[in-house]
Design brief:
about 40% helix, alpha/beta
């Protein structure tokens, strides 16, 4: 998204297979950019083995190890999709008496646009600043340790950016023709395990 990271009233760490979300959330917390973070996410076929206690709980544990006090963390352990991540995080914050006007939305790098588009639909009055660990693609792939998984997930994320507005799950985003062409090439080369209907 190219957003400049800046202070916000809260942060929301979106669950996934990427523990770097919790690592970067802890870094931004220590930098004083927000007082409270919600980690949100249950498990998925991609994360069940990696995070058996749930994405949000593993994120919480990682953040505490990195110096975030437990009192600054809310855990939302039920969400199984991005819309639920946003909606249930809003409920968790409200339950704690927090009604923010702005949030740092922390995700894996290639999920920023989908997270932004989803928040625009689910919580339109929230000012969203997207953030993710600042890693180049080769470094990101190395951090995950599974090149095919990363490319499959990237392709699936872009498909959702294109398709979800038609289904009412997100606000529409401009997808440049070069990006659409790259998507078509990757699908043609078999990076399809995370396409809608494939999981």
């Amino acid at each position: 998204m190219g957003h400049q990271v800046r202070p916000c009233e809260v942060a929301i760490g979106l669950g996934s297979h990427d523990l770097g979300v919790a690592v970067y959330a802890a870094e931004l917390f220590r930098a004083g950019l927000f007082p409270t973070v919600v980690f949100t996410g249950a498990t998925s076929p991609t994360t069940r083995d990696r995070f058996p206690r749930g994405e949000a709980e593993h994120y919480r544990e990682q953040a505490i190890e990195l110096g975030v006090p437990p009192s600054a963390i809310l855990v939302e352990p039920q969400a199984t999709n991005t819309g639920a991540n946003i909606a249930l995080s809003r409920e968790a914050l409200a339950g704690a008496g927090v009604h923010p006007g702005s949030a740092l939305l922390i995700s894996k790098p290639y999920m920023q646009r989908r997270a932004y588009a989803t928040a625009g639909k689910v919580w339109p009055e929230l000012t969203v600043v997207c953030a993710s660990e600042p890693l180049a693609l080769p470094d990101y792939v190395k951090s995950i340790g599974d090149e095919k998984l990363v490319i499959d997930m990237l392709v699936g994320d872009l498909q959702r950016v294109i398709e979800y507005p038609k289904q009412g799950f997100a606000v529409e985003q401009d997808v440049p023709i070069g990006v659409e062409q790259a998507y078509t090439r990757l699908v043609g080369r078999g990076f399809i395990s995370r396409l809608l209907g494939s999981v």
